[in-house]
Predict the 3D structure of the following.
Amino acid sequence: MAIIVKKFGGSSVASIDLIKSIAHRIAVSYREGDSLVLVVSAMAKTTDELFRLAFEISDHPSRRELDMLLTAGERISMSLLSLALHNEGFSSISFTGSQSGIMTDSMHGNARIVDVNAFRIREELAKGKIVIVAGFQGVSPSKEITTLGRGGSDTSAVALASYLKADLCEIYTDVDGVYTADPRLVPTARLIPSLDYGQMLALAYSGSKVLHPRAVEFAYKYKIPVEVKSSFTFAPGTILHSDYNTTTDRYMEDKTITALAHKDGLIRYLLSADEALLWALKGWNNEIFRYSFENDSIELLIETKYESEIDHLISSKALSLKEKSSGWACISLVGLGINLDPCILAETLEIMKGIDLLRVGHSEKTIDLMLKSQDLKVALLRLHEHYLVSSADKGGKS
Amino acid sequence: MAIIVKKFGGSSVASIDLIKSIAHRIAVSYREGDSLVLVVSAMAKTTDELFRLAFEISDHPSRRELDMLLTAGERISMSLLSLALHNEGFSSISFTGSQSGIMTDSMHGNARIVDVNAFRIREELAKGKIVIVAGFQGVSPSKEITTLGRGGSDTSAVALASYLKADLCEIYTDVDGVYTADPRLVPTARLIPSLDYGQMLALAYSGSKVLHPRAVEFAYKYKIPVEVKSSFTFAPGTILHSDYNTTTDRYMEDKTITALAHKDGLIRYLLSADEALLWALKGWNNEIFRYSFENDSIELLIETKYESEIDHLISSKALSLKEKSSGWACISLVGLGINLDPCILAETLEIMKGIDLLRVGHSEKTIDLMLKSQDLKVALLRLHEHYLVSSADKGGKS
């Protein structure tokens, strides 16, 4: 008898057919006696559509009312999924974030989880029901409805798994799991079956979109076993836990590159160092990809989708912009102990020959390369071929 | 019946009195049935003295002979400790790295552990003996004696603990454990009783000298519980494991600064980007504190003690030096999720007001500040007071 939390993102519940299909897959895979909690996002595009409606009414909608509006999105998907489960013969019940006991602070639009008090979920599980929970939402100390911001639904799922001491928290998504590189750009990329929280965190911070760093941090802190897997196939994906997987090391003190992460479509802003900027960026948690200050300049690397917001911020605060350029990408090699080994650095630069690198740096578990977007694919292919395709794999193809 | 590996560094076995005192403390704390393996470094200054002797004979001593010579250092300390244990009534036996089955690659002076095959240790433990092992040394595939380079003895201990599936690997040293900041500079610094490998790794890479990053990586990979503690008091120190300590978080998604690490006495070299430099730095594992490339320049941050070696390297390879300056220090704030939160960054810069910062950057678990050595102490004091002295502590003093 296991307790399992399953989270389905917006693309997994995007249509009635998909919702029915999830209910059916759950019926097929259900094992008698298991306790299931299903955390759902709003149907894909619903949140954007609700946003659009709000901004048609007001240029500056109240954050409180906006949260009230947006949380209707999960209310729709969760009740539909509950209905679909009834059709499959299950007894199920849906709860809002508030009913589930997801207690947050008062920061509307970007609330942090303060505590979980999910006694109602526990009671319903005890009655043998499948419980469906609205991800991405919670309730503040003054009983207001809040939303959790980016990475919110994954974080809801991990937080509930922590409260329930779940055996597993499954994050269903539109990819099969964590790969050695993005398989859309690197055809030889392999699924990583098992990964420690620390390396997953480095990957998430370096651009891997499979799981938000915030959810990884939560899992790391509370030691929640998480599996990232496909909502289309339900096939085994990538399991995250605290164990470093030593099977890919050739010897004990080997320094292995576990995977490549990248972020494309970055805009680089170079501004005069000004505290007004920093205060203006409050609330931009995790939306800034990289920042650095050197002498009197601040450099920000930000995704294209935030361009207009940043431009607005710069002009409204009268900040002095020194340079702005787009078309940047970053690649991070992730592995334990690789960062300060000059051999790996020398090798990496050798592989990158002919590709313009604006910058090479490192962090605790990464070597970081900044390059032009146009060179991203060839750089990823070369690095993956060198570090992540074993000689056996290469031989096998000839 | 526990299996415990205890490692004593050079300063802990620096004199006959200290060796006798360790033997006595072991006698007092010994619990019937426990299996003890003691890993020792050479007596403090012995290695330096042996180095000096070698260089009196030759400017370029063979690395093989040098390793043969240096490994005499642990041979002395381990046999003396064994004799001291005989005096305490124990049956004990000392082993070299080779006899202990520490298998390494062939990189003399900086060998990596490839495997451990410590069957002789296991046999002697089964006979009820205390086994003493020479740290820092191993044997290559061609049966040559190798030394492990920086962090070697700690790594020997952790590697043996892994082979023996030890219940605990105790690293005895001249400090009590890991502190919230260096207690010599920050009087209010507190001992951290429990710390996860990931944050310890960030601290070690950022300058905490308590444990070498290499040993932390080994412990992380093989999940070895490690305790860092004082060889003078044997009092409880800091236990490292895979569990994040949530007790210092005020709420679930809190972003807590766990500790400050720093590195002082850094020299900054700015060189024209040149691959010759990189290849010349091969073998400099972990001796470069930070590196980065930007456009056509390479920046290296290196401790003062390597200054003459780097200067020699630059002149012998005819590398073009653009700038060299000394008197630099770095401070890292370490914590989960602090790196991309503009509030913490804004707060940190506010605290640093009036202190010149050359640079502010971040890595996955850190915010990194580069400043002049002369400002280090006041910066540490301010940051520690703000982030690591709780308001209760502050109130308690008034």
Remarks:
- Chain B has 13 helices and 18 strands.
- The domain at 259-397 of chain B is CATH 3.30.2130.10 (VC0802-like).
- Residues 347 and 386 of chain B are 9 Å apart (CA to CA).
- Chain B touches chain A through 69 residues (CB under 8 Å).
